[in-house]
Design brief:
Radius of gyration: 19 Å
Oligomer: single chain
Order of helices and strands: HHEEEEEEEEEEEHEEH
Distance between the termini: 32 Å
Structural class: alpha+beta
Number of helices: 4
Strand content: 35-45%
Shape: globular
Length: 255
């Protein structure tokens, strides 16, 4: 069943109700990034020929400055592309560029990393147990019916440059006999499947996942409930505002 949210409640959040956000973001910054991002999200959702069912929009604070970065794109089967990527700094929205590997399709903004890395459950924030250092990891992958490639990528943001580094990677394909065979990498070195699994297990054992992560809205391909996705075709302005409200409402800084 679809939930209807009052226009007053939506307006309150989109105009910057600071009580909905964690204390690490200043009250002066909160309404600015919300208001600034809103038009970019709305314009993207109104894009002509957008495959809204495969669409994902995510907020995640990569550089730990209390203001989330904004990502939007497509993630489903053979589609894995980032169409929009922004940060809010110095009082304005700024486009991100990316350096480093990824498993995505190079779209109009030239990212190697794909939107699959920002799907709920794929973009995760951790702390190193020994140092307390924050680590943001995107689990990216792409392929088709008989092959798939991807990996775990650490994400760092310096200004407007997003840098990715492959922690572990893989390429798998289905043989004529129906079995799957693969090539696996750890820290850039080719390893066996057993070594690959052990390397991933050992790496994540050094990290603690934070309870508060990213915020995501999605179409039917990536929604928790196929019957009631956040994003649908031919959305009205009111429905777009409702989706943005949900995205903002569910976001809080990772702690």
């Amino acid at each position: 069943m679809k939930r209807w949210i009052s226009s007053a409640a939506i307006a309150s959040l989109l105009m910057g109700d600071s009580l909905a956000y964690g204390a690490s973001t200043s009250t002066a910054q909160q309404p600015k990034w919300k208001d600034a991002y809103k038009k970019y999200i709305a314009n993207y959702l109104k894009s002509e020929d957008l495959m809204i069912g495969d669409c994902v929009i995510t907020l995640v604070d990569i550089d730990r400055d209390g203001v989330p970065e904004l990502f939007g794109g497509l993630s489903y089967r053979t589609e894995n592309v980032i169409d929009i990527a922004y940060t809010y700094k110095n009082g304005k929205v700024q486009k991100l560029t990316q350096k480093g590997p990824g498993a995505g399709d190079s779209g109009s903004i030239g990212f190697n990393l794909g939107m699959t890395a920002f799907v709920k459950g794929h973009i995760l924030v951790y702390k190193e147990k020994k140092t307390g250092k924050y680590v943001v990891i995107g689990k990216d992958s792409g392929g088709g019916a008989v092959s798939v490639s991807g990996g775990d990528y650490s994400l760092t943001l310096n200004g407007t440059v997003l840098t990715t580094k492959e922690i572990n990677g893989f390429y798998e394909e289905q043989t004529e006999g129906g079995n799957w065979e693969g090539i696996y990498y750890s820290s850039g070195k080719k390893v066996s499947k057993k070594q690959y699994d052990a390397s991933r297990s050992n790496y994540y054992a050094q990290l603690t996942a934070l309870t508060k992560q990213s915020s995501t809205i999605a179409g039917s391909s990536n929604a928790n409930s196929f019957s009631d996705p956040d994003l649908r075709y031919d959305m009205t302005d009111s429905e777009i505002n409702e989706a943005i409200y949900k995205l903002y409402q569910s976001y809080s800084p990772s702690k």
